Amino acid sequence: MEEGMKKAANNRALAESVYYILLCLHRPAHGYALMKDIAEMTDNRVRIGAGTLYGALDNLQKKKWIRQLDSDPRERKNEYIITDKGKEYFAMELARLEELIKHAQDVRGEGK
Hints:
Layout lengths: L2 H8 L5 H9 L4 E2 H11 L8 H13 L3 E3 L10 E4 L1 H24 L5
Antiparallel strand pairs: 1-3, 2-3
């Protein structure tokens, strides 16, 4: 990964909704399925409205972290999938979160 990308990712945590969108898009999904899956996964703690979701999907496409899959023109649902670039940012976020947990466990005397 290029140094600039690493530095940018290290300085900015993903919003929780973006984290869950990227997580779910490791498999193809359309917007309604994303809203439903994220709500179920988090026991309704994270609920993303349609406007917020489609704004996030548009932003993530502009960053090239996700892409729209080719769809049947007769279908009204657009499916999305995470890109390699999105997977890189997602992996960096996971590493950041793991580091937070490790530090908390160390300070609390729970480290391994």
